[in-house]
Design brief:
The complex is a heterodimer of chains A (about 200) and B (about 575). Chain A is α+β, with helices and mostly antiparallel strands. Helices cover about 30% and strands about 30% of the residues of chain A. In chain B, a hairpin with a 4-residue loop joins strand 2 (about 95-100) and strand 3. The radius of gyration of chain B is 34 Å and the shape is elongated. Classes of the chains: A alpha+beta (about 200), B alpha/beta (about 575).
C-alpha cells in the first residue's frame, strides 16, 4: 500500500509530460503571438504618428515662412485651379525708417524624383544653402490621378505632392506624405493649410 | 529502509524544485513589462513632442492676440504696452505681454511674447502710427487731372508753421518753391503758357514737386511747364470710397435766415441751408455738421474757426459755392476743416430745367482745408488759392490757379484712414526672462510666485484718460479721470482722447488723438512707396522750434465713435 502511494508521487507519467509540454507550448505561442501583434500594432502606430509628425512639422515650417513674407513677393503663386510646387520668397528681417527690410532670397521646392521638400537660401547662387524638410512626398497629392481631372475635389487638377495656390493675400499649401512599412502597408498623410501673409 | 530513504530524497528534491514555475512566470512578466515600459516611454516621448508642437502653435496665436490688443490700443491713441514681464496678461490658457517702443519717425515697434504650456513664441510688429492714405496723395483725381496754363502748384507743412513763414521770397509767384503733390488715377495734363517760349517774367506753369499719373496713365505737358519732382506713376489705382457721416446725429431746424449766423461747437444735422449775398455762416469747432443741401450765393461767406477743434462738414446731396462766395479758415490750418461733398447726381436744383452738378465749387479767396468729393468733377477757379488737399472724381485747375499741398495731411486722418499702418511683421528671438526660460506652464509658475495675471481685456497699462466727445444731444463734453470711471455709452462720438499711464494728463507734448473708426478703416489700398516713405516731421512731442514759433500745435481730429476692432486677419 505504501509503495503504491510512493510510486504515484515520485514520477510523472508520459501523459502528464505531454500535457505539460502542450500547455507550455500554448503559453509560449500565445506570448509570441501577443508580442508579434503588439509589436506590429506599435510599429504601425509609430509609423503613422511619425509620418503625421513629419507632415505637421513640415507644414508648420512652410506656414511660418509664408507668414513672414509679403504676398507681393509671391507673384509666381497662381490662383486656383492653377498651382505651383515651389515658391521663391523673402522674409522681413527688420524695419528701418518706416520701411521693411527684406532678407536674402529663399525657396521652398518640391524635388519630384526624390520626393523631397527642400528649403534653400540664396538659391541658384554660389552661396546656396539647403536643408531637406521632409522626404516621402509622392508625385501627386492624395486622391489625385494624373488624368487632367480634379479627382480629389479640392479645386485643383493633377496637383503634385506639394502644391501652393493663392487667393488674395492668402496662400494655400497642400502636402501629402506617403510611406510603406516593412509589412507592405502604405500610410498616407495629407495636410492642407491656408496661410495669410502678414507683411 | 532503503525505500524509505529513497522516498525521503525524492521529497527533498521535489521541495528544492518548488517555485521554479513562479520564476519562469516572473521572467515572462518582466519581459512583457519591460516591453510595455519601452513602448510607454516611446509613446510618452511622442506625445511630448506633439504637445510641444501644439503649445508652440498656441503660443504663436497668443502672441498674435497680444499684437492685436496692442494694435487696438495704438489705434485708440494709447502707448501699445499691454501687460508686462512682471505682470503678464492672461489670454485663454496662456499669457502674453507686449512691449511698445516708439521711434523717431512716428513708427512704433511692438514685441509680443506669448507663453502657453511649454510653448514660447515672440513676434514683432512695426507700425506707422497714422497715415492718411488719401491725404498723402495731395490734390488727387480718381480720373484725369488738368492744370491750366500759368498755374503754380507748391506745398508746405502746416505743422511747422504758417504758410507765410515758409514762402521762398527769392521766387516769383508767392510760392514755397517745394512740396507740391499732384496725383491722379488717370492721365495728368499740364498746360504751359501761350506762345510756347519762356519770356521775361512769365515763368509758365510751375509745379514744385511730384506729379504722379495713374498706374496706366501718363503726364502730358506742353511747353513752359516746370516740374521739379518725380513723374513716376502711382503703384496702384486708389479708389475713393464714400465716407458717410456719423449716424444718430439729431436733425434740427435751420434757425438762421439768408444772412446766416453762428453755429456753436457740437453735432447737428440740417436738411437745407442757403446763405445769401452778404451773409456769413460761422462754424466753430469741434463740430460735425451734416447738410443735405448747402448753398452759398455770390457774396456769401463760410467762416470756420477751428482753433478749439476740427470742423467737419458733410453735404449729402448738393453743395453750391457760387462764384463770388468766400471761404475762410480763421486758424489757417488745413487739417482743421474738412468738407465732404457726397452728392453724385446731376439734378435741376434752381428750376432752370438744366441739370446742375452735385458740387459747384466756384468760391474765391484762400481755402485752408481738405475737400473730399468722390463723385464730382471739380473745377477750381484761379481766384481761389486752395491750401490743403483735395480728392475728387476729376480735377481741373483753371489757368493762373494756385494750389498748395499741406504735408501735415499725410498723418492727420482728415479723410478715411487712421488705423496704424503695418510696416513689418516678423518672428523674433525670445526675451531673456525667467518665465520664458522655465519650460513649465506659465500660469502655474505665476501662481506659485503669487502673481495673478491680468485679464487681456484690461491689461493695457494706460488707465487715465481725457476724453472730448459729443453726447447724445450733440453737445461737446469733457471727461478726465480713470478710464474705468467713464461711461462710454454717454459718448455718441469721440472727438479726441488723451491716454496716460499716470494721472498727469495734459503734460507737455500730449496731444489729442482721434480713435479709429470702422468707416475710416475702409480704405485699404496703399499709395505709392514714395508717398509712404516721406518722413513724418510733426512727431508726438513739441520741439523748441515749434514753441519758438508760438504756433498752436493742436491735432484736432474727428472721431465718430464705434471703435474699430483691428481688422487684422488671424487665420493661419
Amino acid at each position: 500500500m505504501s509503495r503504491v502511494g510512493f510510486g504515484a508521487k515520485t514520477g510523472s507519467s508520459l501523459l502528464e509530460v505531454v500535457i505539460a509540454l502542450t500547455v507550455t507550448a500554448m503559453l509560449l505561442g500565445n506570448i509570441a503571438m501577443v508580442q508579434r501583434a503588439t509589436t506590429g500594432a506599435y510599429e504601425s502606430s509609430i509609423f503613422s504618428t511619425t509620418l503625421e509628425d513629419r507632415a505637421d512639422r513640415t507644414m508648420d515650417r512652410i506656414a511660418l515662412a509664408i507668414m513672414s513674407t509679403s504676398v507681393d513677393r509671391l507673384d509666381e503663386v497662381l490662383m486656383a485651379p492653377s498651382f505651383v510646387s515651389s515658391i521663391d520668397y523673402e522674409i522681413v528681417i527688420d524695419a528701418v525708417a518706416g520701411e521693411p527690410i527684406m532678407g536674402t532670397p529663399e525657396r521652398i521646392e518640391f524635388d519630384l524624383p526624390e520626393g523631397l521638400v527642400i528649403w534653400k537660401r540664396d538659391p541658384d547662387t554660389p552661396e546656396e544653402m539647403q536643408a531637406i524638410w521632409t522626404r516621402h512626398v509622392p508625385k501627386l497629392l492624395e486622391g489625385e490621378l494624373a488624368n487632367g481631372l480634379d479627382d480629389n475635389g479640392n479645386g485643383i487638377a493633377d496637383e503634385e505632392g506639394l502644391a501652393f495656390d493663392r487667393s488674395a493675400n492668402q496662400i494655400t499649401v497642400r502636402l501629402t506624405l506617403r510611406r510603406t512599412d516593412g509589412q507592405g502597408t502604405e500610410y498616407t498623410r495629407t495636410r492642407s493649410r491656408r496661410v495669410t501673409c502678414r507683411n | 529502509m532503503n525505500q524509505l530513504l529513497t522516498s525521503s530524497k525524492r521529497l527533498q528534491a521535489r521541495a528544492s524544485r518548488r517555485g521554479s514555475l513562479l520564476l519562469i512566470s516572473v521572467f515572462f512578466v518582466l519581459i512583457v513589462a519591460s516591453m510595455g515600459m519601452v513602448m510607454l516611454q516611446m509613446h510618452t516621448a511622442q506625445s511630448r513632442r506633439q504637445l510641444q508642437a501644439t503649445d508652440n502653435k498656441r503660443a504663436l496665436y497668443i502672441a498674435e492676440a497680444g499684437l492685436s490688443e496692442a494694435f487696438f490700443c495704438l489705434a485708440q491713441g494709447r502707448s501699445g504696452n499691454v501687460g508686462s514681464e512682471e505682470q503678464p496678461a492672461q489670454y485663454a490658457n496662456g499669457v502674453y505681454w507686449v512691449q511698445a517702443t516708439p521711434a523717431e519717425d512716428d513708427s512704433v515697434s511692438l514685441v509680443s511674447t506669448g507663453l502657453c504650456g511649454t510653448g514660447r513664441f515672440a513676434l514683432s510688429l512695426v507700425l506707422n502710427r497714422q497715415v492718411d492714405q488719401l491725404g498723402s496723395l495731395g490734390f488727387y483725381a480718381a480720373g484725369n487731372l488738368t492744370v491750366g496754363q500759368g498755374a503754380v502748384i507748391d506745398g508746405y507743412d502746416s505743422s511747422l508753421g504758417a504758410l507765410s513763414e515758409q514762402r521762398d521770397l527769392q521766387l516769383a509767384g508767392d510760392t514755397t518753391g517745394s512740396g507740391a503733390r499732384l496725383s491722379a488715377g488717370g492721365d495728368v495734363s499740364l498746360e504751359g503758357t501761350f506762345g510756347a517760349p519762356k519770356k521775361g517774367s512769365d515763368p509758365g506753369t510751375q509745379i514744385f514737386g511730384d506729379v504722379q499719373p495713374g498706374p496706366n496713365g501718363v503726364v502730358s505737358q506742353s511747353a513752359d511747364v516746370t516740374i521739379t519732382g518725380s513723374t513716376r506713376p502711382l503703384a496702384q489705382q486708389v479708389s475713393l470710397p464714400a465716407v458717410d457721416p456719423p449716424e444718430n446725429i439729431e436733425l434740427r431746424d435751420w434757425q438762421f435766415g439768408p444772412q446766416g449766423g453762428a453755429l456753436p461747437p457740437g453735432e447737428a444735422r440740417f436738411e437745407a441751408a442757403e446763405i445769401a449775398s452778404g451773409g456769413v455762416l460761422h462754424l466753430e469747432g469741434p463740430a460735425v455738421l451734416v447738410f443735405d443741401d448747402l448753398r452759398f450765393k455770390d457774396g456769401a461767406r463760410l467762416r470756420v474757426d477751428s482753433s478749439d477743434g476740427q470742423v467737419v462738414v458733410f453735404v449729402e446731396e448738393y453743395l453750391e459755392l457760387a462764384q463770388g462766395s468766400w471761404l475762410e479758415n480763421l486758424d489757417e490750418d488745413p487739417t482743421g476743416f474738412v468738407l465732404f461733398a457726397n452728392g453724385t447726381e446731376w439734378l435741376d436744383r434752381d428750376g432752370d430745367q438744366i441739370p446742375d452738378p452735385p458740387v459747384v465749387f466756384d468760391a474765391e479767396g484762400q481755402f485752408f482745408g481738405y475737400l473730399y468729393a468722390p463723385g464730382s468733377d471739380i473745377v477750381l477757379r484761379s481766384e481761389l488759392h486752395m491750401i490743403g488737399g483735395l480728392a475728387a472724381s476729376s480735377l481741373t485747375l483753371e489757368a493762373g490757379g494756385h494750389l498748395t499741398f499741406d504735408r501735415a495731411l499725410e498723418h492727420s486722418e482728415v479723410t478715411s484712414a487712421s488705423l496704424p499702418e503695418l510696416v513689418a511683421w516678423r518672428i523674433v528671438e525670445l526675451p531673456d526672462n525667467d518665465l520664458v526660460k522655465i519650460r513649465r506652464d506659465p500660469l502655474r509658475t505665476l501662481s506659485n510666485d503669487g502673481i495673478t495675471p491680468t485679464p487681456s481685456a484690461v491689461a493695457s497699462k494706460d488707465t487715465h484718460v481725457k476724453v472730448k466727445y459729443f453726447d447724445a444731444q450733440g453737445e461737446v463734453r469733457d471727461f478726465s479721470g480713470l478710464s474705468s470711471d467713464f461711461d462710454w455709452s454717454e459718448a455718441q462720438s469721440v472727438v479726441g482722447v488723451i491716454w496716460d499711464d499716470d494721472a498727469s494728463i495734459g503734460d507737455e507734448g500730449q496731444e489729442w488723438f482721434a480713435p479709429a473708426t470702422l468707416k475710416k478703416a475702409r480704405v485699404k489700398k496703399k499709395p505709392s512707396k514714395s508717398s509712404q516713405g516721406k518722413a513724418k516731421k510733426n512727431g508726438k512731442h513739441k520741439d523748441a522750434n515749434e514753441e519758438g514759433h508760438g504756433r498752436k500745435r493742436r491735432r484736432r481730429r474727428r472721431g465718430h465713435g464705434g471703435h474699430d476692432d483691428n481688422g487684422r486677419d488671424h487665420k493661419d
